[in-house]
Design brief:
The protein is of the alpha/beta class. It is built from 6 helices and 9 strands; from the N terminus they run αββαβααββαβαβββ. It has a 9-stranded mixed beta sheet, with helices on both faces.
């Protein structure tokens, strides 16, 4: 759906440490490559985000995210198989591949596979490993942007690129966040889907 010229442009922006706004199945997000410290810093600056709050890693396929977590045990795999792609963020112990500047120094990382065609296409075609570091597209303590115009109003020329949603608009409610710990599920935030901890 996204043409070759735009793919090349976005890929170049990301490789140079740029930040893009991108649609997902839940809300619009800000995204960059997870190994670009200058890009991660730019996201925090754009949002006025507390540096103690981590970003999450998202991809079109959980297989691309597995290297970023310490242990993809059967329990975590079952949770991912049940809810991915979809509006669930799974927080688990990170691997050494996950940079501490992405996780705000925490030893855990959130991973998610959105159910969104445009996001998936960008992740697959504009990155070398299918993974983006992301957060919601808003100024801290302000509502998440609902469309491209609101993103432009928030960030103006400071953002490097705003990807079109091609009519696949985010639904507007953030993902549910759960933590996997000792083969148990702890709900950190109820969002788009209701999770019962015994899952």
């Amino acid at each position: 759906m996204i043409n070759t010229k735009e793919i090349s442009l976005i890929k170049n922006i990301l490789n140079k440490g740029g930040v893009i706004a991108i649609p997902t199945d839940t809300v619009w997000g800000l995204a960059c490559l997870p190994d670009k410290i200058e890009a991660v810093k730019k996201i925090y600056e754009l949002k006025g985000r507390d540096e103690k709050k981590p970003l999450i890693l998202m991809s079109s396929d959980v297989d691309f995210l597995i290297p970023y977590i310490y242990k993809f045990d059967s329990y975590t795999e079952n949770i991912c198989n049940k809810y991915f792609p979809g509006p669930l963020t799974v927080v688990t112990q990170k691997s050494d591949l996950t940079e501490s500047f992405v996780t705000a120094g925490n030893d855990t990382v959130g991973i998610r596979v959105p159910d969104h065609q445009i996001f998936s296409e960008i992740a697959q075609k504009c990155t070398s490993n299918g993974v983006l570091a992301t957060t919601s597209a808003n100024l801290s303590n302000f509502p998440v942007a609902k469309n491209k115009q609101e993103i432009a109003n928030y960030f103006g020329a400071k953002i490097d690129y705003i990807v079109d949603d091609f009519g696949f608009s985010p639904k507007g409610k953030e993902s549910t966040v759960v933590k996997v710990q000792d083969s148990q599920l702890i709900v950190l935030r109820q969002g788009s889907i209701i999770i019962i901890e015994k899952d």
